[in-house]
Amino acid sequence: MSSIVMNELKTFDIHVEHERVTEIEIIDLLNEEKCLSFLRTQMIEIKAPSLSVTASMLSKRYAYLVVSSTLYSMVEFNCALHLPVKACALSKERTLCIQAGMCKWQEVKSMERETWRENVLRTLFSSHITPVLNILKKTSGVSSSILWENVAIRINSIYRKTLAKEMDSVKMERLNSDFHFLENASGDLFNLKENPLKQYLKIGEELIINPCRKTCCLYYKLEKDVKGISHCGNCPIKNKKIKARIHTMNEIK
């Protein structure tokens, strides 16, 4: 991999394996017993009250590492790093450690971009993200809806941040095309019956008008953040409380 590529990856906390001490191989995370043990350790580390809260927080982090980095590369470079499960691990600091020799840089080259994109995203989701979320659900009991919306908010966020930059028309077209492809993909892309992201994906004006989530990621159940943050900015519970307060104030008037 070129130094330019690696520098870009490091902004998403992706490092070549020798640069970090690994905590768990992702292939081991897919083992129920090992996943449960890892979640119990993480629960203590992040001071979570339950395995379900721990799994939700882990899924948000993992989606940033693997999904956000891939989608950003697709728009920015028209390339994507193949991240097979067997080549990935998590460090104690929850960064992604990869075996560089197993992670090939996938370029469009002579292939039609639509065909290339489908191949990249099918591998990403059906062979990597879906199995990881499935084992987190099985071992922690957290709902699939929460886990998949955690992935969706990372997608919404990376596209929102990318759109906020000055982009040329070609990259803008790629971004919008990739978003709509994900939104309208069949469940087969994820190795599921239905598209688990569809109802949670938002872009542009829709995200500005309605930024709130449909499910709660359970962040508010963690011990209060040192910065005093008790809820996510797009928390549906916080939003309901605000609406209820406004409604009460209007009634008093």
From TrEMBL:
Name this protein carries in UniProt: Ferric siderophore reductase C-terminal domain-containing protein
Instruction: Report the residue ranges that make up the Ferric siderophore reductase C-terminal domain in this protein.
Output: 213-236
The protein's matches in Pfam families, at most eight in alphabetical order, are given as: FhuF (PF06276), FhuF_C (PF11575)
UniProt superkingdom = Bacteria
**Positions in coiled-coil regions:** none
Q: Supply the source organism's classification.
A: Bacteria, Bacillati, Bacillota, Bacilli, Bacillales
What region holds the Aerobactin siderophore biosynthesis IucA/IucC-like C-terminal domain?
111-198
Q: Please give the Gene Ontology molecular function terms for this protein.
A: 2 iron, 2 sulfur cluster binding; catalytic activity
